[in-house]
Amino acid sequence: MTLSPPPNATEQTAHRHQTKREDSIDLLELPSSPSSSDDVVVSSGPLDCTLPKRTLPPWVANQIDEWGERVSLPEWDADEKITPEEHDGITEDDFCCSGDDYRQNNGWIGTDLCHSVTSPVRISHYAIQYKDSKGGVGTKLTGVAHFTQKAESHSGYCHGGSMTSVMDDVIGWTSFFNSGKCVPWSGFTAQVNVSLRRPIPVGSYLKIVGEIIKTEGRKVWISSCLVCGNDDSHVYCTAEGLTILKK
Question: Global pTM?
Answer without folding.
Answer: 0.74
